[in-house]
Design a protein that fits this description.
Helix content is 32%, strand content 25%. It has a 6-stranded mixed beta sheet with strand order 5-6-7-3-8-9, with helices on both faces. A 3-stranded antiparallel beta sheet has the order 2-1-4, covered by helices on one side. The protein folds into 2 domains: 148 residues, P-loop containing nucleotide triphosphate hydrolases (Rossmann fold); 75 residues, no CATH class. The protein contains 9 helices and 9 strands. Bound molecules: adenosine-5'-diphosphate. The site of adenosine-5'-diphosphate has 12 residues, from strand 2 and helix 1. This is Zinc ABC transporter ATP-binding protein AztA. Keywords: ATP-binding, Nucleotide-binding, Transport. Pfam families: ABC_tran. Belongs to the ABC transporter superfamily.
Length: 246
């Protein structure tokens, strides 16, 4: 069953945007634990979409489905692109004791193309350098991931995502827990990527980040309870209902 708030705008994505992903009656979860219940939505191409909801509402699960790492249990999912998406996991999901340097972390983004532990080509190395420069982490290249601040680590993970050269970038809570400067830096980068032709989807419970998106999907208890323009959707009354009993 789909629950829509009465005052939610009609479930239309931002105007004039063709969908990059469309799903209908999409359900998914884990063995013995259904999480997402018959979701219908479109993710517009060349836009920044925020998946918003309280902890446990199913944002990461939906991102996993969009990334292709979690199989839907029913429903349909249609991708309009032909390259696999680049997926930037939550920082907390990446062990900080792994003995990896920033450069090695970013290089791992090329494994999909090259195969793990294979020697990178000159072109791969150029792609890695460009991504590190873009994220401003060249001076951290030889530092261990575990010694970095949250914001620096997040930038290394995003750089890894960029080296996959996908036109669909999925990020799980990229700004959560960061200081305001690091959050703004990442928000600005995501907007720039859209201008460069990337479709960006971020799961977040950072409402500032959600408000800077072009469109958002609101999740509660695995149900889609609203979708559309963040300014219209993320009103105080909607949020109070979203977070109550969450
Ligand atoms: P969010 O990203 O909004 O915090 P999640 O998608 O991570 O939500 O989780 C939704 C629900 O699925 C939660 O109740 C969580 O406990 C459950 N869940 C998440 N991952 C797993 C898993 N690997 N196995 C079983 N249940 C899980």
């Amino acid at each position: 069953m789909k629950i829509m708030f009465k005052d939610s705008p009609s479930p239309a994505p931002a105007k004039n945007r063709t969908p990059r992903i469309r799903f209908t009656e999409l359900s998914a979860g884990y063995p013995g634990r259904p999480v997402l219940h018959e979701l219908d939505a479109e993710i517009p191409a060349l836009a920044l979409t925020a998946l918003v909801g309280p902890n446990g509402s199913g944002k990461s699960t939906l991102l996993g489905v969009l990334a292709g790492v979690i199989q839907p249990t029913s429903g349909e999912l249609h991708h309009a692109g032909d390259r696999p998406p680049a997926f930037v996991p939550q920082r907390s999901a990446v062990g900080d004791t792994l003995p990896l340097t920033v450069r090695q972390t970013v290089e791992m983004g090329r494994w999909g193309e090259r195969g793990p532990w294979r020697r990178l080509t000159r072109q791969d190395r150029a792609i890695v350098e460009t991504a590190m420069e873009r994220l401003g982490i060249m001076d951290l290249a030889s530092r261990q991931l575990g010694e970095l601040s949250g914001g620096q680590r997040q930038r290394a993970l995003i750089a890894q995502g960029l080296t996959q050269e996908s036109e669909l970038l999925l990020l799980d809570e990229p700004t959560t827990g960061l200081d305001p400067e690091a959050r703004e830096r990442i928000a600005a980068l995501l907007t720039e990527l859209v201008t460069d032709g990337v479709t960006v989807v971020q799961a977040t419970h950072d409402l500032e980040a959600a408000r800077s998106a072009d469109t958002c999907l609101l999740l509660r208890d695995g149900h889609l309870v609203g979708q559309g323009n963040p300014e219209q959707l993320l009103t105080a009354s909607t949020l109070a209902r979203m977070w109550e009993s969450a």
